[in-house]
Amino acid sequence: MQGQYRALWLDKDNNLVVIDQRVLPFEEKEITLTNAKESIESIKNMIVRGAGVIGNVAGFGVYLAGREYNGNIEKIALLAEEIRESRPTAVNLMWAVDRMMNVALNSKLNGEELVALLLAEAIKITDEDCERSEKIAEYGADIIEEIMLSRGLDSFNVLTHCNAGWLAIVDSGTALAPIYEAKKRGINIHVWVDETRPRNQGANLTAWELSKAGIEHTVIADNTGGHLMQNHMVDMVITGADRVARNGDSANKIGTYLKALSAKDNNIPFYIALPASTFDFEMLDGLLEIPIEIRSENEVKYMRGLSSSGELQEFQIVQSQSSALNYGFDVTPARLITALITERGDCQASTEAITEMFGDLI
Ligand code: RUB
To answer: With 0-12 CB in 10 A as exposed, 13-18 as middle and 19+ as buried, what is 151?
Structure first.
């Protein structure tokens, strides 16, 4: 488990250390998770977030449950179910828990041997994500180069929504991975960063990641993208995904759908970058079937930021008498997606193409 930037790692006692994403970019704080309940809370409270990293923490959560109960499979199974239910939309969470439990049950081990096996499997899941992320980076950067070549561009403007960088999936993310790779290839790249209300993952996390990597970027209010697209200021849109159904319909942070509509209207390529673990092959129709998380209305009514005296504070921005509604995700229909960028290359967002490319996993 290594890499230049990692959203999570093990300490010398094999506890899981994560970056507290709630306080970025103003504070860089680490939190150590020592048991399964703490992993569940870290996912629920969005200390960690992003489909990939949620899946990794879930995997380590099952290991921590095993350690706590000295490899007792019944106890592990109970906690695994709780981990599985900690957030509803990102399918990597369920995928990782199921993989951990299958390995545990098939091994017929218990006690310390089972705990060691669970630790090894959780590390493996995270390391595999890292490899997938590297491939997505390469395929995605190839697409950027192709678009630049076909349009004779000498600089490139990408728009992204939410955070799908290394804070969301180790080691360089999904949507941000091709951007990091493009920068390495010497491409003159600039990123429009949607602020991503209500929790501001774009303004707080993507902008922080990009500035650490020295990538030119501009934060925009969520409603700005359409105007930029109409005025030829966006060459491509790339986002991550939380769950992609067999027909290519893709759930991602609320507001992604509107960007896809606008991209379609302006003839701008719209890509979703994802590892295979974000597919839900059982779901045949994403629009009908993907469960959409509804979060607390307080996330809409309050915002967190620095006060004029430099203190990290929460501010109320909606009067108490008004209610608010907070859907966490929306589904972009496959017909609006130019292609999916995966670790196996780019794939049309359709049942036929997905089945052909990922048939061995279905
Ligand atoms: C995160 C979100 C991200 C995807 C990225 O939502 O929508 O775009 O999870 O996925 P939240 P990946 O902040 O509510 O968790 O992990 O595959 O990059």
So the answer is: exposed
For residue 235, indicate whether it is catalytic: no
| Cα 89 to averaged position of ligand 1 atoms, centre (Å) | 10
Q: Give the active site residue among 242, 249, 330, 346.
A: 242
pLDDT, one tens digit per residue, over 287-305 is 999 999 999 999 999 999 9
Whole-angstrom Cα distance, residue 302 to residue 295?
A: 13
- Closest ligand 1 atom to Cα of 275: 17
Q: Which residues line ligand 1 (CB under 6 A)?
A: 49-52, 90, 162, 164, 168-169, 173-174, 201, 239-242, 252-253, 274, 278, 328
SS3 assignment for the chain? CCCCCCCEEECCCCCEEEECCCCCCCCCCEEEECCHHHHHHHHHCCCCCCHHHHHHHHHHHHHHHHHHCCCCHHHHHHHHHHHHCCCCCCHHHHHHHHHHHHHHHHHCCCHHHHHHHHHHHHHHHHHHHHHHHHHHHHHHHHHHHHHHHHHCCCCEEEEECCCCCCCCCCCCCCCCHHHHHHHHCCCCEEEEEECCCCCCHHHHHHHHHHHHCCCEEEEECHHHHHHHHHCCCCCEEEECCCEEECCCCEEEECCHHHHHHHHHHCCCCEEEECCHHHEECCCCCHHHHCCCCECCCHHHHEEEEECCCCCEEEEECCCCCCCCCCECEEEECHHHCCEEEECCEEECCCHHHHHHHHHHHC
Q: Which of 6, 253, 296 to mutate to test the pocket of ligand 1 (most atoms within 8 A of CB)?
A: 253
Render pLDDT for 92-146 as a digit per residue (tens, 0 to 9): 999 999 999 999 999 999 999 999 999 999 999 999 999 999 999 999 999 999 9
* Whole-number Å distance between alpha carbons of 190 and 186: 12
Model pLDDT for residues 174-220, shown as the tens digit of each residue: 999 999 999 999 999 999 999 999 999 999 999 999 999 999 999 99
Nearest CA to ligand 1 atom 1: 50
What is the 164 CA–ligand 1 centroid distance (Å)?
6
